[in-house]
Amino acid sequence: MYYLSYRSSDELRNRPTLLPRKQFAIEDTPASSSSFSVLQFNTLAMALSSVEVGKFVCPQEGTLEWLPRRARLLEEIVERDADLIGLQEVDDFPFFEKHLTSLGYVGFHVPKPNSPCLKAIIFVYVYL
Description:
It is globular and about 50 Å long. By secondary structure, the chain is an alpha+beta fold. It is 26% helix and 20% strand. It has helices at residues 2-6, 51-54, 66-80, 93-101; strands spanning 38-42, 84-90, 105-111, 119-125. It has a single domain, classed as Translation Initiation Factor IF3, CATH 3.30.110. The chain has a four-stranded mixed beta sheet, with helices on one face.
């Protein structure tokens, strides 16, 4: 799998571990029904993630750098192992497509109107 070799890349080297996240289940589902998991992220696109454009106050130097940030996003996505992934503000679809298709996902993107780069993306895991 391409992702596994990527995981040891420089983009993830010397980074802190992922923060724990709360997951929840919808309890009103009948026991006999099938279930699936959904993961959603607003990725904060490269084009919008500069201190000048977004007027962000960063707790640490390099927090908004795209290469390590996209690596962490990918790591989060893979760790959660969702059936359906929704990503907003994506301007690096080829990166996510390359890695997630190697894990069995199929990706679709919808360009944002009046934006040359931003897209909303959906990846669906294909069970064979």
